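We both want to read discrete structure tokens more fluently, so let's practise on a single case. Would you supply a protein for us yourself, any chain you care to pick? Would you write everything just below, so we can both look at the same thing?
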Amino acid sequence: MQDDKRDRRVFTDLDYVRLSTLVIRDSAASAAASSLSSIETLLDEAQIVPSRSVAPDVVTMYSQVLVRHVDDGSVGKLTVCYPFDAEPRAGFISVLSPLGTSLIGLSLGALATWACPDGATRAAELEAVLFQPEASGDYVT
């Protein structure tokens, strides 16, 4: 159980359905098995809210965020997207990547933590939600 409200994962009903479908559809793919398992766990434990009711400081699909990395203080601008839209060099990170999974559903001020391929653990604070589709009136993207 998470003690800090900022660390509680919140998913819109649409994101929940789409991510659940992605988990079911791709569960046979062994390369993404651990990523799918992580998302599946988040979905099982998350608070689900109607798209029109999600707070504007929650990371939803296609939200653009600013994160400050704990280890070196560097700041990065990222957009959490579905795997088929991922372009890491352009800042579009898949929700199935360790960083994407660590960000989805978090609120402003929360600490995202993830494991790197080399086994190291990294962390970044969610400094800003620069764009959230639902906050701009887009409830279907």
About this structure: Strands lie at 10-12, 47-49, 64-69, 75-81, 92-94, 111-115, 121-131. The chain has a mean pLDDT of 89. The first helix runs from residue 13 to 26. The two ends are 30 Å apart (CA to CA).
